[in-house]
Design a protein that fits this description.
By secondary structure, this protein is mostly beta strands. It has helices spanning 126-144, 277-290, and strands spanning 6-13, 16-22, 26-28, 32-39, 48-51, 54-57, 59-61, 64-73, 82-91, 94-105, 113-115, 166-168, 173-176, 179-183, 187-190, 196-198, 203-211, 215-223, 226-236, 243-244, 249-253, 263-270, 273-275.
Length: 292
């Protein structure tokens, strides 16, 4: 995806200027957009923005209180329509609010990815329903509900967790045994059982567990609301609380969970919203290169 960076310049006084840069004005549902704020004067406290009634804190770039950035997720089920992003900051003892318009557009995802699995993986028994519900509650409590304000990536670019062919892209509508059940929440990479899987960036392991749908999965906190996770694994080489480095082996691929064959399901969660992991990687790396 190519990004057209939209620069908006707001003059606050004769002696100060604020540049607000939007990564792209048309945003596909299920993806991420970024906003960068730069000033020739100190801005403190940190600015924030409001999108769809949710507040997102902006974070300093390279510890500067003159420049900030934030990555904002757009939910897969968002309506395709124009939206406003409200940006709030304090400059020279003045509280300032600016509104930026974006347009949520169709991601044009594949609509008929047909998958056949054991019927018990589609129509769940009472026991498996309870298990799945309990697992999600645990992940939400220990992973998705937490926001680490520090940038645990240490300003390093993301990499793919495996060098392999992509077999299924993010966003595809999935038909399990003839019934449309969900959309694909990550990117699948071809990986035979026992293939080494690597952390896509620096971070801290939030959780490892064996889930009904995802099988053995590792969750890594990269800070500032961003989590990557790696599913259907056969084994782990890390545990909860471990600090991991980009490119560090975290386990091996497998055939666990609801799956038709061995592969790696790689996914990203940003502020408790599932987003296209490859688009997020491209955007994050682009912003990192432009604003250091």
């Amino acid at each position: 995806m190519k990004y057209i960076f939209v620069l908006l310049v707001f003059s606050v006084s004769l002696f100060s200027k604020v540049d607000i840069t939007l990564s792209h004005a048309k945003v596909k549902h299920g993806t991420t957009f970024a906003i960068v704020l730069q000033s020739d004067k100190d801005i403190s406290p940190s600015p924030h923005l409001i999108y769809q009634n949710k507040k997102y804190q902006m974070f300093p770039i390279s510890n500067s209180i003159k420049s900030y950035r934030v990555f904002v997720p757009v939910d897969y089920y968002s309506k395709k329509q124009k939206e406003y992003v409200e940006i709030n900051y304090k400059l020279q003892d003045k509280f300032i609010t600016k509104n930026i318009e974006i347009e949520i557009v169709d991601g044009d995802y594949k609509q008929n990815e047909i998958i056949k699995v054991a019927q018990g993986k589609v129509t769940l028994s009472t026991k498996n329903k309870q298990r799945s519900k309990k697992e999600y509650a645990q992940v939400y409590k220990e992973v998705y509900s937490k926001i680490t304000s520090d940038d645990l990536t240490n300003n390093e670019e993301y990499i793919y967790p495996i060098d392999s062919k992509i077999t299924s892209a993010f966003g595809n509508a999935r038909i399990y045994n003839g019934i449309t059940k969900s959309y694909h929440t990550g990117t699948d990479f071809r990986a035979k059982v026992g293939t080494s899987i690597y952390a896509s960036n620096n971070g801290i392991v939030s959780l490892t567990m064996d889930r009904f749908y995802l099988g053995k999965v590792v969750y890594i906190d990269h800070g500032r609301g961003a989590f990557s996770y790696y599913s259907h694994m056969s084994s782990f080489t890390v545990k909860k609380g471990d600090k991991v480095l980009k490119g560090q082996k975290i386990g091996e691929s497998g055939v666990t969970g609801r799956i038709t064959g061995p592969h790696l399901h790689y996914a990203m969660r940003l502020y408790n919203t599932t987003v296209d992991p490859l688009q997020y990687t491209e955007l994050y790396n682009k912003i990192l290169k432009l604003y250091q």
